[in-house]
Amino acid sequence: MSLDASIPTPPLSVDLRKDFEESGVKDVLDELDRTLIGLEPVKTRLRETAALLLVERARKTLGLNHDTPTLHMSFTGNPGTGKTTVALRMADLLHRLGYVRKGHLVTVTRDDLVGQYIGHTAPKTKEVLKKAMGGVLFIDEAYYLYRPENERDYGQEAIEILLQVMENNRDDLVVILAGYADRMDRFFESNPGFRSRIAHHIDFPDYADNELLEIAETMLGEQSYHLTPAARSALSDYIGLRRTQPHFANARSIRNALDRARLRQANRLFRAADGPLDAAALSTIDEGDIRASRVFDGGLDVDRKGA
To answer: Which 3-state string (H, E, C) describes 281-297?
Structure first.
């Protein structure tokens, strides 16, 4: 037998639709459609990215010239628009397609990467990168890494280490930088090395009022709560008012508002209870539980952390 005969012959064709289903990518995207309300432009970009990676994998299978695509990404948008959730799904998608070994997501901020003293930043950054290898590193509010106004800031050291690893280990690590769009633009202008390594820029739009109301009902349903018709109307009014106030964080603000509504409901039931309560009473959010919010009086319905 000749040496060439022992080398497997590449197939003559591939079935992309079959690969799409058998790889589990279809399941990931379908789950995203079911669980993530709105964000159609984001979902479209994810489907396009999945298609690109499936085609690249098919080219490799057929023995065509190929190169591992650059998969580092930038997610821009306001808080509470699903960036972390999508990053988690992206890690799963990349793992199913064989572009990362483990498919886990490591979420960090500046404080996890940058030290306060000389010699502290490199070990912190390298330890985070070690944990993230084989998966996705999600850096939230990434623009805080760069603080040119502070001459003694060590963020630049972390940036240089990240850039080196993003280039040398791009077949074993995907980095996603996230934050407000305008601040990320300034960050990229100040750090052209990052811009050149980011192939995919995905913008996350704010949710519409009707989408936030649907998100609220989904959140409540997951905890076996429901709104009365009057409470649903009150929550719709709340969303419209809350959106105009400071520190609004889309779905995050709605989750916090529902937590406070449940607190009011619990106190209402406790004060009024003079006998046994059935499941319906314990599961119902009423209009008063919503309209007791300070938002309806022009105040802020936020805790000290905002949102």
So the answer is: HHHEECHHHHHCCHHHH
What pLDDT score does 18 carry?
87
Measure the CA–CA gap between 289 and 262, rounded to whole angstroms: 7
pLDDT value at 2 more than 60: no
Ranked by mean pLDDT, the top range of 11-15, 29-33, 75-79, 243-247 is 75-79
Distance CA 236, CA 226 (A): 14
Q: Please give the full DSSP string across the chain, using - where no structure is assigned.
A: --TGGGSPPPPS---HHHHHHHTSHHHHHHHHHHHS-S-HHHHHHHHHHHHHHHHHHHHHHTT----PPP--EEEEE-TTSSHHHHHHHHHHHHHHTTSSSS--EEEE-HHHH--SSTTTHHHHHHHHHHHHTTSEEEETTGGGG--TT-TT--HHHHHHHHHHHHHHTTTT-EEEEEE-HHHHHHHHHH-HHHHHH--EEEEEPPPPHHHHHHHHHHHHHHTT-EE-HHHHHHHHHHHHHHHTSTT--HHHHHHHHHHHHHHHHHHHHHHH-SS---HHHHHEEPHHHHHTSGGGGT----BTTB-
Report which of 108, 168, 163 is spatially closest to residue 136, judged by C-alpha positions. 108
pLDDT at 208: 96
Give this prediction's pTM. Answer: 0.86
pLDDT in tens, 243-281: 999 889 999 999 999 999 999 999 999 998 778 889 999
> Which amino acid belongs to residue 177?
L
